[in-house]
Structures are given as C-alpha cells and as structure tokens.
Specification:
The protein has helices at 39-45, 70-75, 96-99, 107-115, 171-189, 203-214, 227-235, 249-255, 271-280, 303-308, 321-333, 339-342, 352-360; strands at 2-6, 13-17, 27-37, 55-56, 61-68, 83-86, 126-127, 133-136, 145-149, 153-156, 195-199, 219-224, 240-243, 261-266, 281-289, 312-315, 343-347, 367-371. By secondary structure, it is of the alpha/beta class. It has 2 domains: 2-170 and 319-371, Medium-chain alcohol dehydrogenases, catalytic domain (Quinone Oxidoreductase, Chain A, domain 1), CATH 3.90.180.10; 173-315, Rossmann fold (3-Layer(aba) Sandwich). Strands 3, 5, 6, 9, 10, 17 and 18 form a 7-stranded mixed sheet that branches. Strands 13-12-11-14-15-16 form a 6-stranded parallel sheet, sandwiched between helices. The chain has a 3-stranded mixed sheet with strand order 4-8-7, with no helix packed on it. Helix 10 links the parallel strand 15 and strand 16. Helix 5 packs across helix 6 and helix 5 (171-189) packs across helix 11. The longest helix is centred in the middle third of the chain and has 19 residues, at 171-189.
Length: 377
Amino acid sequence: MLAAILREESEELFMEHIPLPEPKNGEVLIKVLSTGVCHSDLHVVKKHVKFPRPAILGHEVFGQIVQISENDKSVFDFAEDDFVVTSFIMPCNNCEQCNSGLTNICSSFFFNNRLNGNMLDGTKRLQDKVGQEVSSYSMAGFAEYAVVPISAMAKVRGDLADKSWCVLGCAGITAHSAVKRAILTRQMEGAPYKTAIVIGVGGVGLFITLFCKIFGIENIIAIDIDDKKTELARDLGATHAFNSAKMNVQDIKASLPGQGAHLVFEAVGSAATIELGFGLVSEGGLITVVGIAPHGTTASFEITPLVRREFTIKGSFGGKPKDDLSAVIKLAEQGLIPLEKIVNQNYALKDINTAFFELDKGITRGRSIIDFANKGL
C-alpha cells in the first residue's frame, strides 16, 4: 500500500510503498477513503509533541471495512463492507480510566500509542519495505489501509456519509464533548449558560461554534485574528465576532452582551489565548481549554480573581468514542452538521506536505482532508 511516512530528521512526509498491515482480534482492517489534516498531526511533524519515528500520522478516518475476524463478527456489530468513522482515541475498555467511564483519557491508549506508537497490545502493525517497524499515530490514516481497534469506530450509513465525515472523528467529537460537558456542569450548578465565547475558530473552534448553536446557547461570540475565519463562524451560528488582533480585551468585553461570557472555549493552545479567555469570562464562569500547546507552554493569571470571582478552568481532551462519536454521527445523518461549509480543502495523498504547509501558515480555512480518490495533478 502507499503511505506517507514521517522519517527521523525531517518535517517532510515521504511517499513509500509498504506491506499491508494485518489486524489482530479486536481490530479491523479498513480501506481508507479520507483522512483529516489536523493540527495534532502538525504538532508531531514540527516536533512540538514527541512521537517515535518513523511514523505514519493521520488520526481521523472515514473508510470501509475490508477484513474482520470471524470471532469479532459474532461479538461486535460490524461486518466487512461497512462504512465507518474512526475516533482518534482508541480506548482499551480495561484500564482504571476506562472502567471509570473516562474512555477519552484511556491510560493504555496514552502509554501504548501516544508515547510508544504502538497498538493497544503494545506491538506495532506497520513496517516499511526494508522491514523497519513504523509507529502508528492513532490508526495511521495517511495510508491506503489502516488497522483500527473496534473500540475506536462507529458505523455510518453509506448512502448518507461522504468523505468529509472523517473530521467527525477528532474535531467533531472534541467539540461535542467540550460543549456538552460545559453545559452539563453549568446545569448541575444551576448557573446560566446563555453566552459562550469561542477563541480560535479553526477546525475545532468551528465545530464548537456549531454545537453551541445546536445545544441552544443564545449568544455565541467567535474570536480570531483572521476575519475570514470569523465570517465562516458566523455562517455556522456565531452571533458576534471580534478580531483579537485589532481589539484589546477590555474593548471586546465591553462589546459583549452582559458582563462577560458564562462559557469560554479556548481552541488554540497558547498562553495568550488562554489568558484572553480568563479576561473575558463572567464572574462564576467556566473556561474550557481544548487547544493542544507545544510541550512546556505555560500560561499565567491572577490568583485572587480566580478565587473571589469563582472562575473555573477545565481541560477537555477529545471525546468518548462510544458516546460522542455516535452522537455526532447521528447529528450528521440528521443533516444538522453542514460539513460542506467546514471542509474546504481536498488534497491527494501525494500533496500532503502542501496540506501541512498551508495549515501551518494559516492559509487553511475550516478543515482539510486527504481524499484517496484524488490522484492530484
């Protein structure tokens, strides 16, 4: 199969033909139809996040099952030829976190995959043409075929789904989980959640904006340094938009409905945007940090207001495959997620370095995908 491999000392991915991987029990082999191009992959390419190389990245996939064991067919509701969307989180369903319902922070996934590039059993499925083992970043979707744990995917209706649905497996579930849990937290506290700010309306931020609208938040404020991105956020449900490169925090807050936002979602992963969120949240408000920052990044804020004004700062990582992925797919099948507005770039696998360059330089609008039917020029 053809795969894009990230080698040891390079920020470039190389097109190579490598052996087809073999799934084990509890896994399937899928033919990859599309894979999202995500900032998390870019963090690995730029070495902002450590990951063992050589590696195949690509962690949000839409594809079709081509191989599943007879044992798994009798246990799981999957079959060959099923169309599926994969979750970038691959829970083991056995560790302490999974047994506590926290499948989005599965300990086995973090140790085996994110630290060591392995599948959940601690071994690799991939090797290059000379026999060197190759790490998998989640299911390694920048290749024509991928091995995926059954715990990390959901079936979709083939007559409805298209290749843009791959982005539901990372950006979609991350945003859904963040908004859902923030609202549940406010409801349990009996606190209002009429106003939400989304800082950074790239791929994940656009989904957060959309889910705020779907979940009935009245005032949705999009903040970015790119007016084209805030225009797209307005098209997806934002009621207000501000350019933080042109306005300071005091002016933005003065322009908000009310005295700050009940909910703030930070979807960039930088000290500046987290600190901006701290300055825009209302008294007693909740800041949910979603953006992944380069290793070692820290943010600062004044302690006394944190205590006296009862601000809450919470991290939110991904989503739970069983709950969030199924819910997001259902919303897409109902026509409530206009992916044609969110996915705006389509690349061939051989053009993947261009896709990452444009993502890195802020040229990308919304989300990009690698379309395996697209052979390029």
